[in-house]
Amino acid sequence: MSEQSKHTALYTQHEAHGASFTDFGGWQMPLKYRSELEEHHTVRKAAGLFDLSHMGEVLVTGPQAAEFLNYALVSNLAVMAVGKAKYSLICTAEGGVIDDLITYRLAEDSFLVVPNASNAPVVAEALRIRANSFDVAVEDQSEATSLIAVQGPTAEAVLLDLARPEDGALIRELKYYASVELELAGLPVLLARTGYTGEDGFEIFIGSNVAVRLWDAALQAGDAHGLLPCGLAARDSLRLEAGMPLYGHELGLDTNPFEAGLGPVVSTKKADDFVGRAVLEPLKAVEPARRLVGLRAVGRRSARAGYDVVVGGVPVGTVTSGLPSPTLGYPVALAYVDAAHAAIGTEVQVDLRGRPEPFTVIPTPFYKREKPAGPAQ
């Protein structure tokens, strides 16, 4: 355990529940509490409680906030309605991905940008630099803010037990990628219907000084709904089944949005110039030389990040993430492969430490929940 690693406001709660820890992005985070398989299945069948307080929160305010974010990020944030959220990317001038992030529009002139843990200081600084010619304020609120997620089929029921009766409709009617301010366990929060697991669920922004109170209340309320605290191991297997990228694996400065399958995130229709536009706009019209694809193992052995994808003994790509899927019962992986071998149904091999194993290119996400009719669709 690194002595320089940061602790979230919930660190002592994780210790009390027997968590084993890992360093992630410079933070000591719970890897698991019991079995990562139990935690994974709990999120698929009931609900899991996650501490995501290592994520960043950067508040952007001012009369030119929307115009500024249209310049700083690749998406069109100006058209987003108040109360909505958008997944986007912040790129370099050369088109590489600095980070993927979610931006929430809190008011006409107020946005909350949420970058990934290890990238939070980098993104905050990049936004400050890019804001120089705009009438905006960029404030890194990461240390003062905690983020707690409740994910799974019973997540809504847990939230309803934490909320005031008069706020029940706000929770039930909250759409996917939207947010609302209300009280949970008597505490003011920003509640968002977003997540990284492939399940219905919520992410809750709350002041770090009262985060322990909400965590404990959620555990108590969730007891009747099968909720368990879950760590990063389950979060990683859940997001991989859902085909969601992880920065440093599927995304990085050496990748562009189009090869990562995130071309639709790049808005070249907006009139605004944006950082990276000169490089990215021409790429929209051409086939990427490599593409991020899903792989399914023919056998039982799993591919891991860094393993070569080969065809006829010749390397044609690299695995970025891989594991045995707890939900599906067979190994899956994400990999960048040459475009000539990226079509669905293509048979390839992965070099598993000198032993080639057969895999097939399949669509992603690997897992997709059955969505009941309702506002969260």
Automatic annotation (TrEMBL):
Can you tell me which family this protein belongs to? Belongs to the GcvT family.
**Source organism phylogeny:** Bacteria, Bacillati, Actinomycetota, Actinomycetes, Micrococcales
Quaternary structure, per UniProt, is: The glycine cleavage system is composed of four proteins: P, T, L and H.
- EC numbers on record: 2.1.2.10
Name recorded for this polypeptide: Aminomethyltransferase
Give the protein's function: The glycine cleavage system catalyzes the degradation of glycine.
* GO annotation, cellular component aspect: cytosol; glycine cleavage complex
GO terms classed as biological process: glycine decarboxylation via glycine cleavage system; methylation
Reading the lineage from the top rank, the first entry is Bacteria
Q: Where are the transmembrane segments?
A: none
Q: Which reaction does it catalyse?
A: N(6)-[(R)-S(8)-aminomethyldihydrolipoyl]-L-lysyl-[protein] + (6S)-5,6,7,8-tetrahydrofolate = N(6)-[(R)-dihydrolipoyl]-L-lysyl-[protein] + (6R)-5,10-methylene-5,6,7,8-tetrahydrofolate + NH4(+)
Pfam families the record matches: GCV_T, GCV_T_C
